[in-house]
Amino acid sequence: MRPSTLRALNRAAELTRQNRLTEAMLIAEPVILVADDIEGEEIRRWLLGHVADFTGENHENPKELP
């Protein structure tokens, strides 16, 4: 995953924890939309592994994304 994509995802997680979902989406959506198939899969795995970054909760078995 490109460093700029990872920074955007981390920032989106931070904003989400602050209840600033609209801003989080404005940051994350563009990098997700331009990702190729390989990076898209990396993003998907990162999101599954970082649920707590967005919710502040600890989930031992995150659900699969469709």
Mean pLDDT: 86
Uncertain runs are: none
Number of helices: 4
Radius of gyration: 11 Å
Q: Assess the beta-strand content as a share of residues.
A: under 5%
In angstroms, what separates the terminal alpha carbons? 20 Å
Helix percent reads: over 70%
Count of β-strands: 0
Oligomer: single chain
From the spread of the alpha carbons, the general shape counts as: globular
Please give the domain count.
1
Write a concise synopsis of the structure shown:
By secondary structure, the protein is mainly alpha-helical.
Question: Which tags fit this structure?
Answer:
single chain, mainly alpha, 4 helices, globular
Structure description:
This protein is mainly alpha-helical and 66 residues long. It has one domain (3-55). It has four helices and no strands. α1 packs antiparallel against α2. The radius of gyration is 11 Å and the shape is globular. The two termini are 20 Å apart. The model has no long low-confidence stretch (mean pLDDT 86).
List the helices and strands and how they pair.
Elements: H1 3-17, H2 21-34, H3 37-49, H4 51-55
Helix pairs in contact: 1-2
